[in-house]
Amino acid sequence: MSSPVVFIDGDQGTTGLQIHDRLRNRTDIQRLTLAAAERKDARRRAEAINACDIAILCLPDAAAREAVGSIVNPAVRVIDASSAHRTQPGWTYGFAEMTPGQAERIASASRVTNPGCYPTGAVGLLRPLMEAGLVPGDYPISVHAVSGYSGRGRAGVEAHEGAEAAQAPAYQVYGLELAHKHTPEIQQHAGLAQRPAFVPAYGAFRQGIVLTVPLAVRLLAPGVNGATLHDCLARHYAGATHVSVMALSESRDVKQLDPQALNGTNDMRLSVFHDADHEHVLLAAVLDNLGKGASGAAVQNLDLMLARQ
């Protein structure tokens, strides 16, 4: 029996290149890519996607929708790394650790939408707490995150590594209209009744994310504190291979979080910081925006789907 054919569409962007790197030495699959002259040929792209077993789309949203629309072969399965389908019915959300049974749902799905890098951290922190009833559904959630400049794609890499790199800002907050495209994704998959306030930023480092969510204990369910929240997260992710929760005893000694600490991995580390005197809690996530936030998650989902191919 021949190996499954995996077509990577849009393989020259930051996510596509990283997926190539992660699959480079795999002998259990056949990688299908298009020559440079064919990448914008709609006919050749349609032929390729209909000839594969699993397609990984690393494309802008409109192009991802076009690629999915070109599929006529019912056996083709899709992992979409764009944001085109993350809140759409009929698509399975590709965060395997999100809820019990999610990995199984991904394994058997024909259409999987890869989570965004920021939502991976926000949903990873909030979904277990919302489902446990520890944070009210209408809590006024705010999310702040700092990503490496590769989160902007080629434009960010060129700005910081190209000819004009000396003029690149060291830090910039963006999304000030408070309408970032990841916000509906965070609300839906974290289980929030209200739209969160999401404020992202870029730093002058290539990749990595620190994402934080502040909480006021007085607004949480009665009796809930930092230890309660930590215990819920620790139970939820117990045994997870790619998501860990820092022990409370360790977090008490942590003075700073390095967004680059997990670069090159498909891991995410969650932590809970609690100021008991003032009843403030800070939830935090560290991950690689190109790893667990993109290519790493795509390959993780691919492996789950291949087990059912």
From TrEMBL:
Subcellular localization, as worded in the UniProt entry: Cytoplasm
Pathway involvement of the protein, from the record: Amino-acid biosynthesis; L-arginine biosynthesis; N(2)-acetyl-L-ornithine from L-glutamate: step 3/4
UniProt KW keywords: Amino-acid biosynthesis, Arginine biosynthesis, Cytoplasm, NADP, Oxidoreductase
MF-aspect GO terms: N-acetyl-gamma-glutamyl-phosphate reductase activity; NAD binding
The Semialdehyde dehydrogenase NAD-binding domain, residue ranges: 5-106
UniProt main location, coarse: cytoplasm
Record keyword Cytoplasm present: yes
Listed EC numbers: 1.2.1.38
Pfam families: Semialdhyde_dh (PF01118), Semialdhyde_dhC_1 (PF22698)
Chain ranges passing through the membrane: none
SUPFAM superfamilies in the cross-refs: Glyceraldehyde-3-phosphate dehydrogenase-like, C-terminal domain (SSF55347), NAD(P)-binding Rossmann-fold domains (SSF51735)
Keyword Hydrolase part of the UniProt annotation: no
GO cellular component, one term: cytoplasm
GO terms (BP aspect): L-arginine biosynthetic process
Residue runs in coiled coils: none
Catalytic activity: N-acetyl-L-glutamate 5-semialdehyde + phosphate + NADP(+) = N-acetyl-L-glutamyl 5-phosphate + NADPH + H(+)
Family per similarity comment: Belongs to the NAGSA dehydrogenase family. Type 2 subfamily.
Name of the protein: N-acetyl-gamma-glutamyl-phosphate reductase
Natural source organism: Paraburkholderia acidisoli
